[in-house]
Amino acid sequence: MAQVRGSCESFCPDGEAKMRIREKLLHYFELNNGQKNKPGVLVKEFTRSAADVKMPLPKEMRTEAALTKTVEYLLKEQPYNVAYDFIFDRLRAVRREIVIQMYHASQKICLLEPIVMFLAYSRYRLCEEPIDKFDPKICNQHLQECLTGVLCCYEELEDMESSREPTIRELERRCFIESLYQLFNLGSPESFTRALTLPDYVRRDATRDATFKLCFGICLAFQQGNLYRVLMGVPQLPHILSAVAAAKLQAIRRSLLQIFTHAYNNKQLTVPVPYLLRLLLFDGPIGLQDQCRHYNISLTADRNAVQFNKTDFNHNAEVFTPQHERFVESKLKRIYIPEVLLLKKFN
Amino acid sequence: MFGTVNNYLSSVLHAAQDLDGESLGTYLSLRDVHVQNHNLYIAQPEKLVDRFLKPPLDEVVSAHLKVLYHLAQEPPGYMEAYTQQAAACGAVVRLLQQLKDENWCLPLMYRVCLDLRYLAQACEKHCQGFTPGHVLEKAADCIMACFRVCAADGRASEEDTKRLGMMNLVNQLFKIYFRINKLHLCKPLIRAIDNCVFKDSFPLPEQITYKYFVGRRAMFDSNYQAAVQYLSYAFSNCPDRFASNKRLILIYLVPVKMLLGYLPSKSLLQRYDLLLFLDLAMAMKVGNVKRFDEIVRDQELVLIRSGIYLLVEKLKFLVYRNLFKKVFVIRKSHQLDLGDFLSALHFVGLNDVSLDETHCIVANLIFDGKIKGYISHAHNKLVVSKQNPFPSVSL
């Protein structure tokens, strides 16, 4: 198949812009300062490929530079916790063009990496939103898809003998994305196998990248069943990675609480709340109390200690949905999000 | 062998007329001596072959001669050879479909599929321009087409049914799926064999290979009892003269058995040059967590390559158990201070462990049923059961 190349240099091809302005199909974020019927900056919409739709013409697709600028614009200019749907859709359009234009691995990596970051960040930021505002399942699915896409590109580049050595910058980005993949798939033997077989310069070069080593340690501890080490490792992770790991926290808390119901199973004895708060990374006693109620674990009357009983534990109770964690919030507060999403800065 | 092409083709014809699948398989094998015969390296053999053979066998043979031609080039055209072999495989599928109620051609199918896999592996090794595993995956698709024909042959009698070829193909597919790390694709194949009425009458060598792979898969699914069953079958039935195969089986069988509480004997490990496991077993026996970690770190590459790294890491909690049991034996008390466990961990050289972690490790062991008892947090003590506080791991 002949390669198609886009020729449009703006965020949105003229044809689509004219049509959508005429038909009044502008998104709120495409209006000029939100004023009705005053077009601002338009970004190409996502459309599905379908049998009755003609293959897009070059002028209906953007050039690589335009795509890069589009991604930067979307992640920089928008208040994305409100504009998630908008950005999600427009980034999806970018992904579709990457596929149609059959970009090679290194081009794909540059465009996909920020998309991965955006989805990973949104997954955490919006985890407390109601389902009609944010669907975590779809977000997970797209995140996994983009992640595996990027990972395949890394491998492809490695296998090409002609390709040059990666720069330090590229390596840093790769280590970060590989770490993200590991944490996102915490507990999966397949992804852990990948971590084991990564090339030495990702895996071993701890001087350059302590982050991957930390992630690897967390995943290994999880595989061994040492949840203590997992929980102690998570708060040490940098911003977005700790946010990705936070999505797994509730399940880990449940497992550990369940283990404790067996280990501290005694009617006379109690376990002090501060100890549990520390181990389970709770922000305060309220969180622990909620979980105890949910899994049917009793607290003493003064609420300063927990009484574990293995027969009482409610196995049928579903795992708590992910929530914002204080240690993640404080990390995210200290960074300028667009800079991190565009992988310009890691710490 | 054969001298001229005409000789070769008439031999193929005779084998086909005699319904002699074995010979036919040999004539189309890439491991037979005839591949060294330069007269058979023909770029466009169709016309010649058509004079002797009927479709679809003519396509199989033409493709085979083209494979020989491409492999004889300098450098060998692996990719072209693979494409031709895939065409041969496709023609074999048609041949199988044509021969209703006959299964004499199964050896031919085995041979063509085996060579297809070898060629795909050669492509993966020598060629570029595709994602790793892609050619092998394509080869698996071709073999799968053969498998479908075999599996669907339900009406023929038990001697003549092509279903007898299923296990051979399943083993081929296993080899590919394990290589490209797509273990989930094994599941429908296992189900097909399980549902087969004569699943126990497949030839023993095929059964051994099959059990070896099913055992490994069970291991990855953390289904250790089943894994031991399959792998033990494979190990005890594999004849002693295939020492390297027996060794391969042991690489998985030994750690799974260790996980279930059985330590391997030194003589066995010595015989098969697997002393790595002896070191692990020794560290495990005395509960030396630090030594265990060191061995795993030193042997990391070996363990990763054989795909048992994760499994060995799962042994770690048994090492903790053995160490803590020693504390119990020394203290001779049913109330054990958790500080003593921490001291024991420090004693073996694990210096980065805290009291909190010790609590969690003990809690884990209780949850897993490896220690019987409960922890009193207030007194920082583990109270173990009067009866059998450290139940034997092997049951």
Brief overview:
The complex is a heterodimer of chains A (347) and B (395). Chain A is an all-alpha fold.
How big a fraction of the residues of chain A is strand? under 5%
The helix content of chain B is 55-70%
- Sheet having the most strands of chain A: 3 strands, antiparallel
Number of strands of chain A: 3
How many separate structural domains of chain A? Answer: 3
Alpha-beta classification of chain A: mainly alpha
Spans of chain A of at least 5 consecutive residues whose pLDDT stays below 50 are none
Number of strands of chain B: 3
Instruction: Identify the biggest protein-protein contact and residues per side.
Output: A-B, 36 and 28 residues
Q: Helix tally of chain B?
A: 20
Q: What's the N-to-C terminus distance of chain B?
A: 59 Å
| Portion in strands of chain B | under 5%
Helices and strands of chain B: which structural class?
mainly alpha
Give the distance, in angstroms, between the N- and C-terminal Cα atoms of chain A.
Answer: 43 Å
Fraction of residues in helix of chain A: 55-70%
The neighbouring-strand order within the major sheet of chain A is: 1-3-2
What would the principal axes of the Cα set say about the shape of chain B? elongated
Protein name (chain A): GD12920
Domain SAC3/GANP/THP3 conserved (chain A): 11-300
InterPro entries (chain A): SAC3/GANP/THP3, SAC3/GANP/THP3_conserved
GO biological process, one term (chain A): centrosome duplication
Descriptive overview:
The complex is a heterodimer of chains A (347) and B (395). With 347 residues, chain A is mainly alpha-helical. Chain A has three domains: 1-158, no CATH class; 165-237, no CATH class; 249-326. Chain A is built from 15 helices and three strands. In chain A, a hairpin with a 5-residue loop joins strand 2 (298-299) and strand 3. Chain A is globular and about 75 Å long. The two termini of chain A are 43 Å apart. The mean pLDDT of chain A is 85. The model of chain B has no long low-confidence stretch (mean pLDDT 91). In chain B, 42% of the residues are buried. The N and C termini of chain B lie far apart (59 Å). Chain B is mainly α and 395 residues long. In chain B, strand 2 (373-376) and strand 3 (381-384) form a beta hairpin. Chain B is elongated. Chain B has three domains: 5-180; 269-314, no CATH class; 328-384, Orthogonal Bundle (Arc Repressor Mutant, subunit A), CATH 1.10.10.10. The longest helix of chain B has 21 residues, at 78-98. The A-B interface holds A 152, 155-156, 159-161, 189-190, 192-193, 196-197, 220, 223-229, 256, 258-260, 262-266, 269-272, 275, 278-279 and B 128, 131-132, 181, 220, 304, 307, 309-310, 313-314, 316-317, 356-357, 359-364, 366-367, 374-378.
